């Protein structure tokens, strides 16, 4: 794993986004990473866990906006494979995709209606002259 793929996810994070960033990098659930950090906090001493978190907060860069947008685009299209994972069931995922395709279809119908309309022909004629 390269160091460039490890970021702080401040959009989904609670304090500094360290746990959310680790979860996104390793493909784990955020609540599981937070649970591991709280366990580290309780069982190894408060100072060590806080020190590790602060160091990670200072060393890790904030997740770029492009990567956050890419994650948000595909967020509705994740299907859970195990009971503890977040995500939608197959039926919910299919409903989301069907709704998005219906929206695309309506947009294409509007575009087609404009292209075959008289106003499109007039606009094209005036732009040519």
Q: Could you give a short description of this structure?
A:
By secondary structure, this protein is mainly alpha-helical.
Explain how this protein is built.
With 129 residues, this protein is mainly alpha-helical. The chain has helices at residues 18-26, 30-43, 46-59, 65-73, 90-115, 118-128; strands at residues 7-8, 61-62. A two-stranded parallel ribbon has the order 1-2. The mean pLDDT is 78.
Helix fraction, binned, reads 55-70%
* Major sheet size, sense and barrel closure: 2 strands, parallel
Alpha plus pi helix count:
6
Mean pLDDT: 78
Strand line-up in the sheet with most strands? 1-2
What overall form do the CA principal axes indicate? elongated
Strand runs, count: 2
Spans where pLDDT lies below 50 across 5 or more residues: none
Order of helices and strands: EHHHEHHH
Strand content: under 5%
Cα-atom Rg, whole angstroms? Answer: 23 Å
Write the layout of secondary structure elements.
Blueprint: E1 7-8, H1 18-26, H2 30-43, H3 46-59, E2 61-62, H4 65-73, H5 90-115, H6 118-128
Keywords:
single chain; 129 residues; mainly alpha; two-stranded parallel sheet; 6 helices; 3% strand; elongated
